[in-house]
Amino acid sequence: MSDRRLGPADLGAELGARATLVQFSSAFCAPCRATRRVLAEVARMVPGVAHVEVDAEARLELVRSLGVLKTPTVFVLDAAGRIVRRAAGQPRKADVIAALGEAVRGV
């Protein structure tokens, strides 16, 4: 999708060995809580996948640089931190798994 890469310095957390699910959330966002559950469950299912949640209000510079307009917004990163997919709104578990497949295969 992009040549843009995100790393531990951007996210405040280590990347997963195979892929990383990055979730931009805000405090009073109900869909963010549901998204957190879905992404955490998928990360537990797939070895080498990390789930990192970023507080959008606390990281406005990063939010603006990535063009995040609403929460939740989810980025799927490959092992090198390259953005493979992004989606706004609450994702379906099947879609997250499919996007992870792309990140891990390097499609």
Can you walk me through this structure?
With 107 residues, this protein is an alpha+beta fold. 37% of the residues lie in helices and 24% in strands. It is built from four helices and four strands, in the order αβαβαββα. The chain has a four-stranded mixed beta sheet with strand order 2-1-3-4, covered by helices on one side. α2 links the parallel β1 and β2 (49-55). The chain is globular.
Describe this protein with a few key phrases.
107 residues; alpha+beta; four-stranded mixed beta sheet; 4 strands
> Which stretches are low in confidence, meaning pLDDT under 50 for 5 or more residues running?
none
Instruction: Write down the oligomeric state.
Output: single chain
Number of beta-strand segments:
4
Helix content: 25-40%
Q: What is the count of DSSP helices, taking H or I runs of 4+ residues?
A: 4
**Biggest sheet, strands in spatial order?**
2-1-3-4
Biggest beta sheet attributes: 4 strands, mixed
Mean pLDDT: 94
Tell me the fraction of residues in β-strands, as a range. 15-25%
Give the radius of gyration.
12 Å
First-residue to last-residue Cα separation: 10 Å
Element-by-element helix/strand order: HEHEHEEH
Spatial shape = globular
* Structural class by SSE content: alpha+beta
